[in-house]
Amino acid sequence: MPxxxxxxxxxxxxxxxxxxxxxxxxxxxxxxxxxLRGVLDSGWVAPAGPALAAFExxxxxxxxxxxxxxxxxxTAALHLAYRVLGVEPGDEVWAPGFTFIxxxxxxxxxxAVPRFxxxxxxxxxxxxxxxxxxxxxxxxxxxxxxxxxxxxxxxxASELDAILAACDRHGVPVLSDSAEGLGATIRGRRAGQGxxxxxxxxxxxxxxxxxxxxxxxxxDPILLGRARHLATQAKDxxxxxxxxxxxxAYAMPSLLAAVGIAQxxxxxxxxxxxxxxxxxxxxxxxxxxxxxxxxxxxxxQATRWLSAILVDPARFGxxxxxxxxxxxxxxxxxxxxxxxxxxxxxxxxxxxxxxxxARGLFARGLCLPSGTAMTATEEAxxxxxxxxxxRA
Length: 392
Ligand SMILES: Cc1ncc(COP(=O)(O)O)c(C=O)c1O
What we know:
Pfam families: DegT_DnrJ_EryC1. The protein is an alpha/beta fold.
């Protein structure tokens, strides 16, 4: 394939500078302003009131869970989940090593011991066969984890039914970190459904955003009620301030909830647009030897929140970092896929099981710009930069 000339970088309308293409910027619907105006006019801007309740209803509808608590971030939702699941210092919390640090950070801060399991090559999510074997061995040792965390990755839901079956056998609760999974399905069920609790994120880079924020979801009203109590400083009923526990200031402000409601109306359209972008990347680059795309297993439909590729340097003639640098030179942000948590300095020496799959992904994987408001010219610039790296 001859090297193509790179299309010119279009100037930004405001700054006049070449427009940088971010990895996954917010894509506004046009409804946010009216929703915000409604909240401002009502005066309910704090973390209480009708917009918050409406956002929680909208998240129930989008996720299929019966109860939802809107939180100030996905990480806050995970922290509340660990608290209501009763994680204590010294407890083991098992999670895939191929994820963002926020999956386990709150548990570690609570004194839990993380143990990292490898992911399956067909989904890049927690390997259920490995989990089954590790749980059986842990049961024999008499030291089961307090919680197993299944994590959705780049819009691909984890194989939760197999994970639940493995954990149910030992009575271990499953928490689904679905921060990246909103809208994905597995065998017709929505991401996270079936887990004791699931955490979602609405931060600025997600498929829909509230400008920041998260949600904790579940079907058990008692667990969600305890999380709600903890999220608002664990105030006991009394005219004065009364606390049997220490809580958090983790509730979502209503202004963010208003943005989230507007954004959720576009969820189906955003999923279709992200999937279409992934398909266009594959059509434009799929012929290049040594360049592969994130797989989608037959049992699930991903949202393709981020389009991810694997670069095999021996066949492609350039490595992942060459591609990342070429994209940066073309004004486009890309990111290596997750560096495995067991290889992070903060987790040096943490126990783990397997890890070769996650390490192989990190050596070769790159997330491409995945915003749904990208122009055709910007897409062409990205494709040309990647094609330009290929050496026969
Ligand atoms: C897998 C995963 N878990 C947790 C989080 C934390 O979400 P938040 O940024 O809303 O705290 C994120 C995203 O940021 C994530 O990608």
